[in-house]
Design a protein that fits this description.
The chain is an alpha+beta fold. It has four helices and six strands; from the N terminus they run H-H-E-E-E-E-H-E-E-H. The protein has one domain: Aspartate Aminotransferase, domain 1, CATH 3.90.1150. It is 31% helix and 23% strand. The longest helix has 14 residues. 27% of the residues are buried.
C-alpha cells in the first residue's frame, strides 16, 4: 500500500489502528534504537538512514508489514536470525501471527547495520 505522506508523523497518522500499526511500531522502535539512524520518507514508505544513505524501509501492506533490507540471505546465510519470519530475497514480512518480540529481528537489524557500515555487500 502507498501512503501520501511527506513526514514520518504524517505516515503514522494515515495508518489504520489495527495489528499492522502495532507491528510496524514494534519494528520502528527497533530501527530507531540503533545508533546514528534517522527516520524519513522515501518511495512513500518510512525509511531509515545514516550518513551513508537509506539502508532500511518499512511499510504496512494489506496482509503484512514489510521491512525492506536488501538481500536477507547475505545478511543471515545460515537463516538462524530469520527463524519465524516470512521472507523473500529483499523483504521480511511480518504477518498478523508473527510477533516481532519472539523473533531475532533485532539481531538481524544489528548485523545488517554492521555490514552496511563496513561496506559489505548485502544488496539484492
Amino acid at each position: 500500500m502507498q501512503y501520501e505522506a511527506s513526514t514520518p508523523a504524517e505516515y503514522l497518522d494515515l495508518l489504520e489502528e489495527d495489528w499492522r500499526k502495532d507491528k510496524l511500531m514494534q519494528l520502528r522502535a527497533i530501527l530507531m534504537s540503533q545508533p546514528g539512524i534517522v527516520e524519513g520518507i522515501k518511495y512513500k514508505m518510512l525509511s531509515y538512514a545514516d550518513q551513508k544513505g537509506v539502508m532500511f524501509q518499512l511499510n504496512a501492506q494489506k496482509n503484512y508489514v514489510a521491512l525492506y533490507v536488501g538481500n536477507a540471505s547475505k545478511v543471515d546465510p545460515s537463516g538462524e536470525l530469520l527463524v519465524g519470519i516470512d521472507h523473500g530475497k529483499g523483504c521480511l514480512r511480518f504477518k498478523k501471527s508473527t510477533n516481532p518480540a519472539e523473533t531475532q529481528i533485532e539481531g538481524f537489524v544489528k548485523k545488517a547495520l554492521d555490514m552496511w557500515r563496513k561496506d559489505e555487500d548485502f544488496d539484492c
